[in-house]
Design goal:
This protein is of the alpha/beta class. The protein has helices spanning 46-54, 76-82, 99-110, 120-133, 149-161, 179-192, 209-215, 233-238, 240-247; strands at 8-17, 20-30, 35-39, 61-66, 69-70, 84-86, 167-171, 201-205, 218-223, 226-231. The protein has nine helices and ten strands. The chain has a six-stranded mixed beta sheet with strand order 6-7-8-3-9-10, with helices on both faces. It is globular.
Amino acid sequence: MPGDGPLLEVGKLSVRFGGVNALNQVDLTVGRGTITGLIGPNGAGKTTLFNAVTGLVAPQEGRVRLDGTDITDWAPHRRGRAGIARTFQRLELFTGLTVEANLMAAWESSVPGGALGRRRREGRQVVDSVIDALDLGSIANRLAGQLSTGQGRVVELARALCVRPRLLLLDEPSSGLDQNETAQFRDVLLDVVGRDTGEPAILLVEHDVALVMEVCDAITVLDFGERIAEGTPAEVRKNPRVISAYLGSTDAA
């Protein structure tokens, strides 16, 4: 696998809002070509960590490194063009545009001059390849506002892939999906992660513990802004602190 060391390194990261410690000295790594889960109760600091990695909030302490490069002080758009993409808890599609147009808009945003029509042929090739990879041909010309939640989640993932990310941050991607849709989305995630090439790697925030345990190579657990555990799914499932803070019982995992 190309490259040495993890793709993403978060070291001793602290974020405070007033007197509240949203994150306190948190460490996290995401290996190349892996899916890393980030779990914990509501308010544990998961979305704050996502926002710190993508540059939407500035940490008071700690560093963020992408492929060994310190990006802590980089603006969000610079991080995006360096290969970081994300989805959000709520669907953020352009509902008045077709699926295809949503994907093209994402590609244009990632390329200097893309919105002005530069490198249009290249963008068309990227969008077509993502549509083929995620089997979206049958809905490519439908308005995003007409899609089911399950379809919308896959389209949002497709849109993120159109910026050709090195690191993909997914914030509760199975939210609103039924059991069948979740199973289909699981298969998509396993197809998308770059096992052979090392990219994209995925950092996954998800409350569906069964999904996390099934797809993730490693898991980090937060509680009240602090990391309380990390390890393989099997290790995390048996960790007493995780059971007490989040899982409730080993059966819940």
